[in-house]
Structure formats: structure tokens, C-alpha cells
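As promised in the previous annual report, we have extended the structural survey to additional targets. Below is the entry for Plant synaptotagmin.
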Amino acid sequence: MSSNCVIMPREKLVDGFTKEAKEVWDHLLEEKPVLPYLIPVFLLAWILERWIISFSNWVPVFVTVWASLQYGKYRRERAMEDLNNRWRRHILCSQPSTPIEPCEWLNKMLMNVWPNFMEPKLVRRLLTSVQRRLKEKRPRPILSMEVQEFNLGTTPPMFGLQGSYWSMEGKQPVLNMGFEWDTNEMSVLIAAQLAGPLRGNTARIVINSIHVKGDLRLLPILDGQAVLYSFVNTPEVRIGLAFGTGSQSTPQMELPMFSSWLEKLFIETLNRTMVEPRRRCFSLPAVDLKKKAVGGIFSVTIVSARDLAKLDHRESRYYSNEKLANADASGHANSNGSSGSSGSSHGSHGSSGSGNRKPERFVEIQCEDLTRKTGMQSGAYPHVWNETYDMVLHDNVGTVHVNVYEKPRQNSVKYDFLGSCEIKVKYVDDDSTIFWAVGPEQSVLASRVEHCGKEIELTIPLEGVLSGEVTLKLILKEWQFSDGSKAVANYTPSNVIHMQQAALGTQPSISPYTGRKLRISAIEGRNLAPMDRTGKSDPYLKLFYGKLIRKTKTVNQDLNPTWNQDFIFQEVGGGEYLKIKCYDADRFGDENLGSARVNLQGLEESTPKDVWVPLEKIKQGEIHLRIEVVASELSPIPSQNGNDSGTHSIGDGCTVEIVLVEARDLVAADWGGTSDPYVSVRYGQTKKRTKVVYKTLTPSWNQTLEFPDDGSPLVLHVKDYNTILPTSSIGHCDVEYERLPPNQTLDQWLPLRGVNKGEIHIQLTRRQPETQPKANSSEEQQQPKLVPTPTGTSKLQRNTGKVRSLIRKAMALAEEDDTEDIRQMLEELESAEDERELSISQLQRDRDLLVAKVRELEQAMGGFL
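The corresponding C-alpha cell record, generated without further manual editing, is:
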């Protein structure tokens, strides 16, 4: 072992000497090409010296001295070259700028990799973003917009045609280069379904050319983990558009006015997002976890502000009207911090009419459509709030806008604008998050957090003013991913991808529905905005999912309403959002109390999602929702006598008995502030009515009506009776009785729809004649009877019956001239038809599978026989 330990270093040493000798020899051959021809001369001289003049050894001495000199010269040249390289690297790292250098090599490489690598990758990313924006920001005159073709052409953008160079701004290195993209080979085709008078027509819009030219700036941040990029000034933009109808294969009509409008819109978007000092971020993660973030939640704490200064009076008046048109309406209800504090006389520059009262200042933060406002602060700087708000993201990147205002006088509608700033946040593929903002003198403030739950603090100067800065704390609470997993504080997200189609055991279908059902519970709201003169509101919710719209009851005079209503929806694939809108019910037009979007991706059975959703497009308010997947298996339904019954026979003497007991809090339809109510009951094609109770808003009928039980829809219409004038509707409701066990009574107060208030008290019983019990074994009597899961033909029959029932209900509503409910019934009918098509496709797949199994069985039996 010891000999090996000695030999191996000696061999390495010999190899090193051999390698170095070879390098010296190659260097000598490069400097002295005639050296190989001199070797025979030296050999001849050595032979003569050795054999003729044997007492002399001048030739070996001469060769040794010459080789030593050449080796020393070689070592000195290598040392000088190494020092020169180090000096060049030092100059490159320390010099503030570099000379302008051409970028033809970069553009040549882009031409080669653009058609088959960069263009398809950009198309996939841009197509997803454009489709989402068209779906969310669809104009009112358009029913739907769809991208039918998206192609950027074969001409790539060019970089640094006039050269590129590095410069130093403060301590931040900046790469400057030109950008130019001029192509007429692109094709972006958008089909728009028109509404209103042009309903049914299709407009086709194609973008066939684009020209963008400007100067780019690239700023490496966070030690090379990301690069910020932006335009130095507003770039030149030209867009070519063509229009056509649905019958044209290629739109041909040019509209220069619309092209100018689109160019202006594009320029405004660039100025708002990536023209200095606005910058976008390109992350450079070392690890890619292959997760796509679709939403997130983070909290923003407004800590303090200092050194605030007013703008010019004219600019201040302009900002007061543009940015805070509705601030007074909800400012007093949204202040959850200290409303005022004592201080010095700083800021006493208010008007003479305000006396000794100091101006009050507050901060407004906005993320997408979600806006929140702090309480008022006055006195000496710094103003301290320490108020925390949760912000919601609907993508993997977002921007938080911070605006500071001053209210100079009491009862003044004008707010002086004191400055603004913004913080941007982005999810990185290595599961980290980057925050960045504009620092002093347009420098960069950037921070990176490795996981959720870590807090960062930024002091950001206000833009557009002489002085002022705001201190914020940000904590990332949660990221939601498209595979259903999520990352929260102190939690490692699961890498198991939940695929809805795999969970169902079916193959993907062309239908937008996944086959599952969602139960969405509208539980309650809190801190809603007051809209009435009483300082209260009459809130109700509308839920939009897929093609369906559902509405809760109205809660009168309450800013913290409780609904506790459940709604069932067919789950829609493709990342469909649940949209909720909150309204204040008024006689002459409902007022908006805010809206929100909820991401429903990644829902799993037996794992309900319980969330408080902040309302957007308003200053305050939250809605409590509970969302869960409805299990496909139905539980046993116990009857009153202890037996289990999941189905109810129809016909054979079965009847539906409904007792119309009373009503309360009805709408006043007469001039005297009362009504003459009666109830019109529609059961399928049969129509009956109660007596009229005159001049009351709390009638009592106590009438019993019976109908043969054939499964038809049961609709109640409460009307006001008039002798001469036609009757007027004061509400209606649907009675759901399909799951009611036989010979049991449903005693319930039902809220009336179509009006702001009113409820009706009913008692409903499904009468079934008594039959002789069959002799069953004790085991069969003890075994619960489960409702069978409808599959195959039974499910198709159920869907067909549902379509027929919805048609009957729509016909009944048509006779009552209730257009709103007719529209809702038609939407449900369309959803039922989609469900029926899904059932048919499932039956076809089951049939093909059964035929294949039968053939396999025939082959196996044939071989056996």
C-alpha cells in the first residue's frame, strides 16, 4: 500500500512535467518554425564532437543553456498573459461603461431558433394570456370573444441594430440596446359574437402586422437571479387591422380609426407596465419545479409615511377628482386603524376656513380590482397606521398601487394627491417569490423570499412629488397552483397532481363539464358598504358560474348579512372562475356593493374550501363562501316511521298536498301602502289559486290545495288583486319537493324572488296510499335502502325528465310574463342539455367497452371449446 501511495504522486509529477514540456515544445515550434530543420545539424555537431573531438562537451552545454533560456522566456510570457487577462477582467467589472458593440451574432442566432423554438413558446404563453383577458374584460356589446388563430410569423424581433453597451447608474449596471420588431406575416384572428341589435352576427378581427421600435434597458438584480427590463421612452407602435363578417374566410376591410385606437391602447399599456420607471421581471431560477401558479394571497401592512408634500394646486385638484370619486361614500366604514392622533402643528397649511384643524391624510392600496383605505392621520410626521389588508392575485404576477391623499378641510369633497408608488410581486419557478419597486432616484428595490410566511419591509419613495416615502410590510400567505396543490406558510405543497378526469375514471370529453357537481354556499357577509340614507344596505348576491346565474335572498338593513343558501353547479373545466356580485336592493335600481372572483381549480372531494373573499371595485366588504364537491353516492334518506326510502312512486293515487298558511313582509303594491294578496299555484299544466286577503302585507290563507303527483315543477306566484287594473306580481318562488319522503310534511318559509322582500309559509306533503307490507326477512328489514347512483340509461332518463321539467317551468313562467326567470330557466335548460350530451357520450364509451369485452369473451370461449 505504501509503495502505491508513493508511486502514484510520482507518476502524476512525471505526467505534469511531460505535459509542460510538450506545451513548451509546441510554443517553440510556433515561434521558430525552422527548429525541426536545425535538429539534424545539432545531432551532426554532437556526433562530430563525440567521436572526433572527444575531450570537448560544448554541444550538450549549448543545448542545455539554450533550452533553459527558452523555458524561462515561455514562463515569463505565460505570467504576463495571465496578468493581462486578470487586468482586463478587473477593468470590465469596474469600468462604468463599455464601448458600443454590434449584435449581429445575436440576431443571426434569433433567426435560426425563432421559427421552431421561440415563436411556438411565445405563442403558447401569449395565447393563454390573451384568452384570459378577453374573457375577463369583454366589452358589453359583445357576447363572447374567442381567439381562433394566433401566429407571430417567421420574422423575429431584432436587438441592438445600432449596437449595445453597458453603463453604470449609481451602483446598478445597465445593459442598453435597441429593439425593433417589424413584421407583416403575423396573423391573430379573433371572432366576436355581437349582442344587442346585432345579436347572432359574428365579427372577425385579424391583426396582420405590427411595428414596435424603442430602446431597451436590462437591469440584473438579486445577484443575477432575475433581470428587470423596460423601455427608456415610449416606443413607436403601428398595428395593422382588418375586419370582416362571419361569412368571410379572411377579413379584408381596413379601419384606420380603429387601428389608431388600438395603437393608443397598446401604448398606454406599455407606459403603465414597462416604460421607465415601470419595469417587468424575467426570473432566472436555478431549479424549475414545473408548477404553474394561478393565484395567491399576500398581506400588506401600511406601517407609516413621512415627509409628505403637496403637488401644485391644479395637479392636486385633478388627482382629487380622478382617483377618489367615491372615497367619501365608504371612507368612514373602512377605517379600522386609529382615526386621528395628536401632534405638532406640522401640516397646518389648510385653508383659513378650517381654523386650527390640521389636514388629515390616509393611504389607499389597490391590487387589480381590490381597493382598501386606511384611517385618517393628522399631526406631525411620521404618520403611523400599522393597518393590514389581504390582497388577492388571480395570476402569478401582480401589482400593488399605493396612493396617499390629504383631506384639507372638514366636509370637503376634494382630496389633495400627495404621491403614489407601486410594488410588484411575481412567483418564480423554484417556489420563491420576488418583490420589486422603484427606489430613490429611480433605482431598484428588490427582495426575494424562499417560501411563504416570510416578511419583508420596504421603504418606498413616492413618485411625482418633491418628497415623501411610505413604509410597507409584505407577507406572502399562499400560492395556488393549477394542479390543485398550494403553498402556504409552514407547509410543503404536495407534488401529487389531482386530475379530475382520472378521478372520475373517464376519458377526456369535448364537453366543458367534468361530470362533477359543486355545492357553493353563500354563508354571510361583513363590513359591507352603506348605500342607504339610514347608513345600512339591503344586500343580496348573484353567483355566475359557467352559463348559470344564481341569486340569494335579500337581507334588509344589514351590513353584516347572513344568507346560508346553497347552490348546485355542474363543474366546468378549463380554469373557469366563480364570479360573485353583491348588490344593494332598491326600488328604482340596485346599487353595486362590489364583486370578486374565486378560483375553483384543484377542488377535491371531502375537502371543502372555506374562504372569506374580499370584494373588489369598492373600498370595503367581504363575503364568506363554502365550496365543496358533491359526492356521487347518495346517503340513505330516513323516513318518519323508521324505514329508509330513497325513491317515491309517482301515480297510483299519489298526491301532492300543499297548505298555503300565510305570508309576511310583502311588497306594498297599492297607493295606500298595502296590498290585496292571493297565491296562484302552478303545478305542471294545472293552475289553482287561493282566496284574496284585502289590504294587508301579512295575509293568512290557511288553504289546502291538492295535485296528482306526476313529478311536475311546483311554482307559487303571489299577486296583488285589482278590480279594474291588471294584477301585479309581488313575488314568486319554486318549491323543491323531489327529495321529500312519502307521507312526510315539509314546513318551511320560502323567500320570494323578483322582489326586494317577502316570504311565504307553506306546508307540503306527498301523500302515498298505505300498502300491505311484504314479508321480508329480518336481514332485509335491517339493511338500509340506498338511493342508487344514476348511471347509464337511468341517468339519461333522469336528464331527459329534467329537460322536460324545465320546459314546463319555462312555459308556466311565460304565461306570467316573468322574463328574468325565463332567461334563467333557459340557461338551466342549456346546462341540462349539455349534461345529457355528456351522458350520451359516456353511454357510447361504455357500449364500445362492453362490445370489446364480449368479443374477448367469445375468443376465449372459442379457444376453450
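The radius of gyration is 39 Å. The chain has a mean pLDDT of 77. These points will be discussed at the next consortium meeting with the crystallography subgroup.
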